[in-house]
Amino acid sequence: MTPADLHGAWRLLSFQIDFADGRPPALPFGQAPQGRLVYTPSGHMMAALARPDRAPLGVSRLETGGRAPAAAKAAAFESYLSYAGRWW
Question: Which DSSP letter does residue 43 get?
Fold first, then answer.
């Protein structure tokens, strides 16, 4: 595989955490997570992963998300992950 084989946008099919101590794998985003991975030819990447059953935050506009109830914000935090950085 070459770096050119990775360029583009990819749909997430699974996300699993394996443990070296023999514990069963963890599926923090469930059996069928949703997400995208993007790799650019310039060496940048981003990933966004979410549980498929992720509840709405309960606010009418994105910029008012800070006013959501604490429990809704905690649930949103636990059901989503994003990352961006360099790759080689």
Answer: S
Question: How many C-beta neighbours within 10 Å does residue 29 have?
Answer: 23
| First CA to last CA distance, the chain | 12
Distance between CA atoms of 34 and 19, rounded to whole angstroms? 22
pLDDT of residue 60: 84
From 37, 31, 32, select the one nearest 9 (Cα to Cα): 37
Mean pLDDT over 20-45 rounds to: 95
CA atoms within 13 A on the CB side of 62: 0
pTM equals 0.78
Structure tokens at 14: 């699974």
The two beta strands, 44-50 and 34-39, are: antiparallel
